Amino acid sequence: MAAHMQQQILTAYRLALVAASTAAGSDVYVDHPDELTPAMLPAIVLTEGPEQVQDLSMDAPALQERTLQIDVVAVCSSTTAAADARDLGRQIEAALYSEATAGGLVQGLSLRSSEPQINGGASQLLAERRQTWQVTYYTRAGQPDAPA
Question: What is the C-alpha separation between 135 and 65, in angstroms, rounded?
Answer without folding.
Answer: 10
